[in-house]
Amino acid sequence: xxxxxEQNREQYEQLILETLRSEAREQFRETFLELHPTDQVEIFxxxxxxxxxxxxxxLTPEDFSHIFEGxxxxxxxxxxxxxxxxxxxxxxxxxxxxxxxxxxxxxxxxKVEDILQKMSKEEAEDVKEIMAYAPxxxxxxxxxxxxxxxxxxIVSNVIEKLRNDAPDAETIYxxxxxxxxxxxxxxxxxxxxxTAQPTEVIEKIMSTRVVSVTDDMDQEDVAILIKKYDFxxxxxxxxxxxxxxIVTFDDVIDILEEEATEDLGEISATKGATDVNVSxxxxxxxxxxxxxxxxxxxxxxxxxxxxxxxTLEEIxxxxxxxxxxxxxxxxxxxxxxxxxxxxLALGTIKKGTIGKMVKRELGTGVILGLICMFxxxxxxxxxxxxxxxxxxxxxxxFCTLSVATVIGSTVPLVINKLKLDPAIASGPFITTVNDILxxxxxxxxxxxxxxxx
Length: 453
Known about the structure:
By secondary structure, the protein is mainly alpha-helical. Helix content is 66%, strand content 6%. It folds into three domains: 6-132, MgtE N-terminal domain-like (MgtE N-terminal fold, Alpha Horseshoe), CATH 1.25.60; 148-258, CBS-domain (Roll), CATH 3.10.580.10; 280-452, Tetracycline Repressor, domain 2 (Orthogonal Bundle), CATH 1.10.357.
């Protein structure tokens, strides 16, 4: 199998295009199919519609199924419209059940039923079972293509079974042992199988300490568990401990990317609009609720400044440092927010470590505040020849940064306690809250020391 680098990618693309234009079917198949599936996908998506139709003609449905699995969901929908019904049905029969379920998830009921009816009965039943689970659960992302064996089997028979079943399984590195009713009772690895004596009974070499997940477990928790144990796959069981499927590490990578994108959208108040393929109208519609809400928060900020109008009239110079106080508070709070959200997402922040994390963030804010107070006090004294103004701004920034770090780290914890996604404590939201608190601190200190200015 050839893996392309940047130097020979263009050369291969030109060669493949030439074989398609010259209708050299066998040469195209030989050149194209020796590439890694990922490179096949990257080359395929660059082809024009008329050229793609020739690819469908030259590749079997089984060959093309690997390309279809590697496409993004919006690309899959577009390509599916180009495929003949018979061709697509055979293609689906050669795909893993979880990939088919993912593709069908965004389609209308009639179209889904039509596709399932044209597939083989066994494959269609597997897909229906996966689609019956709630979204973003282990059951909804598992695959049905796995190898299960009996504890009474002998090693030589299992190896023979693998020769027949391995081509259709998503992974064979773990073999799951079930009893007669189908309950998960053990697991053995391919390594254990190969190194065991041919006449050894599986019960003797299997491990009974099986780490599994329930079919209703949240997909993010499944991903964390696989990452924790460095698994290639994890078995999915029902509440009665019946083995119903497996979740593989490649699915976990997709989940982590999806969850990270979702959290990024929440933190930046752009949820649903982070995809560059989304139209300007859709992006604006997704972002507008946060922007409008934060605009009203901005009115509160303006109200805070208005409350201290007399102080500003006395010392107009105080207005110069308003942006500095607001920006510093917002930036520091957002940093602490990122620390808290990441800790909650990875499971590193638990009941016993919450106090430690908040205490650390407070300490960080105090140290940052002292550094900024020292630098600002010297700078303002030199620039404005006013040591009391320097003291007010410096002490205000110290108090503001100390409070901002605590706010940024505790708000996600409170939201998480309410069983909501902590990422909804978005950066803009925390920034605005800390802006208001920063201004209150700044003008309160300035008003208290007004007689000394």
